[in-house]
From TrEMBL:
Protein name stated in the entry: DUF4439 domain-containing protein
Organism in which the protein naturally occurs: Halostreptopolyspora alba
Domain DUF4439, first and last residues per copy: 16-144
Superkingdom assignment: Bacteria
Cited Pfam families: DUF4439 (PF14530)
Length: 158
């Protein structure tokens, strides 16, 4: 294999985009649930997060269309918490953001610099949103254990 060819286990740009898109679909669904079950500042924050994830979802869809790839469809439903108390919803929101960072991690290695830029910004934004919901800051956001160790977590939260 030459230095210019991707390793066999590295996804193509389209596969990495699809993975990030699946994470965004789950986040949009999750924030719809959170917003419906919280109030006050939490409701406003959930609305802001929902809007941010919709914007990223649409950008990923557009990037896939530019590559002549059909964007992955959203599932009919995603896993939701059993409780709707404030702490549970905050934890769930932080988990949505963490899974979103996982979804963008491989996109950060895309061959297209504009996709790498999109991934880096999305990783940063999701990390900040997660912190606002009470997540702890890890050394390397996006990696399953926060330390840079490889892993294969399901980003859609099934």
């Amino acid at each position: 294999m030459s230095a210019d060819s991707p390793a066999e286990d590295e996804p193509s740009d389209a596969e990495a985009l699809q993975n990030a898109l699946r994470a965004e679909h789950a986040a949009v669904y999750g924030y719809g649930f959170i917003g419906a079950h919280c109030e006050g500042e939490d409701r406003e924050r959930s609305r802001e997060c929902l809007d941010a994830h919709r914007t990223k979802r649409d950008a990923l869809r557009s990037a896939l269309v530019r590559l002549n790839v059909s964007p992955a469809a959203s599932k009919a439903a995603y896993a939701l918490p059993d409780s709707t108390d404030r702490d549970t919803l905050g934890t769930f929101a932080a988990e949505l953001e963490e899974r979103t960072t996982h979804g963008y991690l491989r996109l950060a290695a895309a061959s297209d610099t504009s996709l790498r830029d999109l991934a880096a910004r999305a990783l940063q934004e999701a990390t900040i949103r997660g912190l606002r919901w009470g997540a702890e800051l890890v050394d390397l956001p996006g990696f399953p254990d926060g330390t840079g160790a490889p892993g294969g977590e399901d980003v859609a939260g099934d």
